[in-house]
Amino acid sequence: MGAYKKLWLLLCTVVIITFSLLGYFGREVYRQAPPIPDTFKTPSGQLLFDHDTVLAGQSAWQSVGGMQLGSIWGHGAYQAPDWTADWLHRELTQWLEIAAGDEYGKPYRSLDDEQQMLLQHRLKTEYRHNSLENNSVLISERRAKAIAQTAAYYQNLFADDPALHSTREHYAMKENTLPDSQRRQDLSAFFFWTAWAASTNRPDSHATYTNNWPHEPLIDNTPTAENITWSIVSVVLLIAGIGALVWAWSFLHHQDETVVPASRDPLSIIQLTPSQQALGKYLVLVVALMCFQVLIGGITAHYTVEGQQFYGLDISKWFPYSLVRTWHIQSALFWIATGFLAAGLFLAPIINGGKDPRYQKLGVDILFWALVLVVAGSFVGNWLAIAQIMPPELNFWLGHQGYEYIDLGRLWQIGKFTGVAFWLVLMLRGIGNAFKQSGDKNLLALLTASVVAIGLFYSSGFFYGERTNISIMEYWRWWVVHLWVEGFFEVFATAALAFIFCSLGLISKPMATTASLASASLFLVGGIPGTFHHLYFSGTTTPVMAIGATFSALEVVPLIVLGHEAWENWRLRRSAPWMEHLKWPLACFVAVAFWNMLGAGVFGFMINPPISLYYVQGLNTTAVHAHAALFGVYGFLAIGFTLLILRYIRPQLVFSEVLMKTAFWSLNGGLVLMIIISLLPIGLMQFFASASQGLWYARSETFMQSELLQTLRWLRGIGDMVFIVGVLAISWQVFSGIFNIRLIGKKVRTQTQS
């Protein structure tokens, strides 16, 4: 540990304290999750729903795509409604209509202001205090009628009622989404329960189980005092954190000692091992899945304007919105993960002294075909589930889990974890021998720790089941989506790049080690407990909001120095003549720093404070952050790793300037256009609608089908087309490089290592 003792102690302290917070308050998630009562019944003894019916409805919801068809508690797709907010508003308005007829004999809209205010007061009293007693909930006869009318609407919507055909088109739902009538009734029970939890106060609390989310003026679902308080605290902490980082950077940052690069690329001297030569097929898989993801994403986006058709062709019968959106997200995760896994497998022999451990190539080949099997199997399972061909009892295991980013069936999820764990074994076989050699091993130790974390933390997705309370499921889902993807992959990327640049002789090992350890602490201090910022309104309590708001603000702090990191990376290309051949991988790493600042930083903090997320959760403002951060950061990282590996496993290749300029600027420009022309304006308009009238309205058919929003969704095609050009260009560069195909009419020539 030696000279890095303080940095290691800092990193270990950060990890221990932050995971302690995540674990302690995770226990509170279990204890305080919204209960699923044994029964919901009327004073006359009529049973409306019971515990098993609600959970059966949760399974039915999973089978139609779950979060890929509308959202629950704000998490999911943006096209159809948030079913919680939509059910709640429909039930409330039905109650008011029934009450107006009972009390005054006329429609609610015909009542004067005083009469409406009186009924709204009764409405609020009944709904906000509809608490659990003896594990049962008593539903008034009037509310039971409102529930029945609302349930009838949903049962018709998820069937093929001709009267709701246009609504299904506007929601991008296929006809007869859920054919089984009993399962539609169960689905209604699940939607009702999520709305009950969002409208009923916790015992001894002034707020609902979802912290008064969604915004619903009819029952005074408005931001709590704690929401506003912790939002202000998060902003103050952000400013303080930035100030502290600037001061620390000014006083503690030291210039790296002068490094004289070698006259020849050090990595080009090392003879390629069989396992490294076998990585070409990984790169082909990366670009193949990327092309598939982007093209299927174009269909997904087009469904937002034509609902069930693609330029007049009715394809929703076979490939509905919920399916193509599932494939769009899952393929992104697959190709990005494949790029990262390939980077690790490329580094392993280098770490091992330029040679393969025994049977390493065989392991690399087995892992590749295992990845292909998981991708193909999970995609087929998704299709069978959403087509309602798969038997219901097999759906969760082989079909569709229903949870965004973890949509693949549990069996395929186990397969994916097994593959990642096998990758961990392959990595450790190469790394283990290096620890036996003399010299500074601190950077290698950090890289090893990140590899182990990636290999093991995906297993957190197994801590929930098909019928786990959705609040508890959300806790573990974000361990995968936030911790595994945004946390440990970030540390791995930092350590891997530092190791690569160090191996190239461009930066000194002490500087690389110091920067990597410091960056890991900065990323994780906010990143680990910052997981809770996804759970403000998912059935959790105020302390979860406090921890999430406080630490998620700190996530943004290290991103302000990424401009310096980008410059440092970019200037490396002038450190030696041979570095010019790595210009485009370096350009991708510069893009990572830019999108980390904008996508993860600016657009991330735009939605992170509780008061902001209260109004924008489930709106297109979230999509702005998701696209800019997922592709902008992790996508460009995976592309950079892919180009770097390609450069060394095909040493004769010279990147085509025409293809690479087209790819780089089209990808960045297309992403910018997609955001500023369509996603961000729609999100901001939805934000105003949500704040002024309620979330139900911001996601409603009336608002989303307005002429202006339809025009903005059509205009998104401009950015999409530019982006697709970039994807095709980068894909052809990789494909032609792997298979030694002529580029732009010229033979691939041998480059000199000068």
What does this protein structure show overall?
With 754 residues, the protein is mainly alpha-helical. Among the domains are: 38-222, no CATH class; 271-437, Cytochrome c oxidase-like, subunit I domain (Cytochrome C Oxidase, Chain A), CATH 1.20.210. It contains 27 helices and 9 strands. It has helices at 5-32, 51-63, 83-104, 113-128, 141-157, 165-170, 181-199, 225-252, 266-269, 274-277, 280-306, 321-351, 360-386, 392-399, 410-434, 442-457, 470-503, 509-527, 542-556, 562-571, 583-607, 610-616, 620-649, 657-692, 695-698, 701-704, 707-738, and strands spanning 39-41, 47-50, 71-72, 75-76, 136-138, 309-310, 313-314, 400-403, 406-408. Helix 11 runs antiparallel to helix 12 (321-351) and helix 12 (321-351) runs parallel beside helix 17 (470-503). The radius of gyration is 27 Å and the shape is globular. 54% of the residues are buried. The model is unreliable at 744-754 (pLDDT under 50).
Give a brief rundown of this model.
The chain has 754 residues and is mainly alpha-helical. Among the domains are: 38-222, no CATH class; 271-437, Up-down Bundle (Cytochrome C Oxidase, Chain A), CATH 1.20.210.10.
Keywords for this structure?
754 residues; 27 helices; Cytochrome C Oxidase, Chain A; globular; three-stranded mixed beta sheet; disordered C terminus; mainly alpha
